[in-house]
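Form 7-S
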Amino acid sequence: MNNLGTDVVVAGAGPTGLMLANELSLAGVDVVVLERLHERTGLSKALNLQPRTAEVLELRGLLSGAEERSFATVRDGHFAMIPVGYEGWDTRFPFQLGIPQAQVEEYLEERLATQGTKVIRGAEVIDFVQDKDSVSVRYRTDSGENVLYAKFLVGCDGARSVVRKGLGVDFPGVDGEGFGVVADVLFDRIPDGAQKQWRTMRNVGEPTGATTFKGLIPLGEPGLYRFVYGDRASRPADLRAAVSQDDVRRALLDSYGETATVSEIRWASQFSDAARQAEHYRVGRVLLAGDAAHIHFPAGGQGLNLGVQDAMNLGWKLAATVHGWAGDDLLDTYEAERHPVGAQVLHNVAAQLGLTPRSHSSRALRAVFADLAALPEVSKHLSGMVSGLGVRYPTHGTSHPALGSRLTDEDVATEDGPLRPSTLFRDGGFVLLTTTPAHIDAARAHAPSPRLTTQLVTSLPWPATEAVLYRPDGYACWTAPTR
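Output:
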């Protein structure tokens, strides 16, 4: 048995765990990532990066690499399969980026390796014990059991999280009533009416009956599509059971008839409409993020994105705590800020499921809702929920329209010309935009990190404001009024 030491152990090398590990490594934290699987599955799974996730990646200079691996730019989102646009959100990325989860994971792991941190694969967390100073994590590899001592442990190990279960944290919610199947299929003959390129959420999914649904999304490779189908009022006896190719072929035949022929089914898996959220995201030196903290039906394409944004919120706070730059109360704000966001996602997913056309009255409700969703203000509200653009964190003390809001990344004017603010966040530190150096010392007092980038600007977009301080995750946390 080996006894090793590190600052943080991250359990799970999915998008959430890898994003968190990148953030911690960037901040100079010694991090070890333990992943149960010996190698990545290569399965596409989630397919999108929402606009807010694109903004988050751009803060670290990661977006261009994701764009290179993407296969589509999708100009809208959807709410209960009803398209909603991103107009009015003042974002440079008013679109979803079509990219398989496997490509997101591969890219984040490659970037992690450039920082000198590697994923230990085939390392299954067994249990852990924490005290007031550390956490000892016991894990199993092919060569035997090991114990890893760390200052903190973060469970990013999915819906059946060993870390969450070990904490004994309640995971309340509902088991759900239905199921869905997701499969990647290669067509010899593409169904009539299917999109050839994924550019919009229109006509990629629809109800097929009172509770059943289907959808087809082109995946960039000729003839390759994501096929989704299911029933929101029926659950199989075993949701973990393998989905047979015959099952998928029958569903394709039922959905599209003889207009489609399939040459290959690359993979298929079931999912449920269960919805659960951990009662707490932090217990002492152990924290939860991603699917370990919340699960829901994949309505609106929010799951992967919610986890990546969890990681972005947690990363700088955990680094500041490890380095001793901040007190324990900063780490508590992770749960205070992200638990309500996760709860809101579960709430909007439940609302989407509530628009299932089960009856004459629910069909009428759905039709009226679709009319409302076409109104610009309603569309913006709905797209803000599913994209993450609408997230605003509560602040205390002085009221200012910038506080708690995300950086919109509009160019700011400097003596050397226009500057894109997102380029100032590459090192993962705080960023101060100010019209005068007089506010630098005050800003440092509000930044629990020695890494503060100061940029003098000729003006700011808010009246009577001389300075705005942004956290490493791109949310405004302090302002200075005009003297």
